[in-house]
Amino acid sequence: MNHPESCIQCGTCATVCPVEMVGGHAIVSFLADPDTTDYSVWLCTSCWRCQEACPAGVDIYGLMMEQRRAVNQQAPAGYQAAFESILACGAALEVPQEELNQVRAAWGLEPVKLPPPGLARSLLRSDE
Amino acid sequence: MGFELAFYPGCLVLQRMPEYEAATRAVLRGLGIELEIVQQATCCGSPVAESFTADWVYLAAYNLALVEQMGHGTVVTVCGGCTNTLTRAARALQDPACSHRAEANRRLAPVGLSVTGQVEVKHLVRLLAEREEQLRAQIVRPLSLRVALTNPCQVFRPSDVMGFDDPAEPQSLRRLVELTGAQVVEYGGEDECCGATLYLADPSLALAAGRRKLEATQGADLLLHGCGNCQLLLRRFQRLIIRDEPDLRKQALLLPQLIGLAMGLPEEELGLREGIWR
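ok -> C-alpha cells follow
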C-alpha cells in the first residue's frame, strides 16, 4: 500500500485507536510508521476515532476499506462467513423466518418479513 | 399527540436482541411515538459488505428505499453501525455530483423500488436527546445507581456526516442517563470503542478490549450501552471475557432499559425478565 501523501506521520491516529490499546496493530500502525509491515487492515472496529483526530484530514477509513477490498487481502473467517450470509439471506446472521417470528411473538413483537433470498446478492451485483 | 416513525433494527437486534427492540418501543410509547418496523430489510451494508465491495452503498440504498416507500421521512435506529452506514449512504445518494443515485435506482427497479436518499436516519440517543424535557416529565422512579457508559462511536463520528453532538466527547448519552437519577461514573473509557467488531477478525483481541473496559469500570453498578454491538461483547460475551475472574462480572443494560426503569415501566416490558440483576 502507498503511504498517503497528506499523512504527516504524527501518530495521533495510533494513540486513539482501541485496537492499539489492546496490543493489536491496525492500519494506524502503518500510517504512523510507513516502514512497518506488522499490521492488519482487518483489525479495525470502525469507531472513526482516528479519522476524527487526524490533523491532516486523511480518509483513514476509506483507505482501510479500499485495502480490505484489494484482491490480495485474505479476509478473516468471521468476515468471510458474515459476507456469505449477507449474500445468501440478506443478513449477517441467518435466522429462519418462522423461528424469528416465534421469538418475536414471545416478546410481544409484531411479525416481520425477511427479504427474499438472493436479493442482497443481486443488489451487490455479486451474481454477475 | 402521538405519531409514527419507521424503525430499522438491523441484523443484530432483529435476530439476537428482541429485548432491545421491546425496551425501545416501550420507552417511545411513553413519549407518544410508535415504531413501524421496516419489512424485508437487509443488512445495512457495513462494515461487512463494505469490506468486500464498494457496492455496499446499494444495500443501504435498498433499506432507505423501503423507508421512503413506507412514506416515512425519518427512520429510527438503535445500533451505531446501522446509523452510520445508512447516514453515509443517504448523503451519497443525495450528492448530485455522484452517480450513486442513478445506479441505485437502476438496481432497485426490478423490485419496484426507487430512492432519493431524503431520509433522516436517527439513532435512539438522538431521538431521546431531542425530547429531554418531555422525557424528564416521565421519570417517576429516579434510580440510585452508579453507571459506566460507553458512547456508541458511530452515532457521533465522522462528525462531518453525522453532525450530532461533540465527536470527541459526546454528552447526550450522559445527559440521558443523568435524567434517570443515576450517577455517571467517569472511568476514562467512555469514548473508547467497546471492540465488538474486532470479534469478526480476532476474537481474542475483542475479548481483551472487553476486559479492559470491565476492569476500568469496577466502581460502577452497571454498564450502559446505546448500541447492540457493545451489549453483544460486554454482556453476551462477558462470560468469555471473565472466564478466569468471576469477580469482574458486571450487569449491562441498554439505554431504553435504564430509562424505562426510571419511567416505572414493568421490567418484563423492558426485556428484563429475570429482573435487573438477572
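Residues 77-89 of chain A form the longest helix (13 residues).
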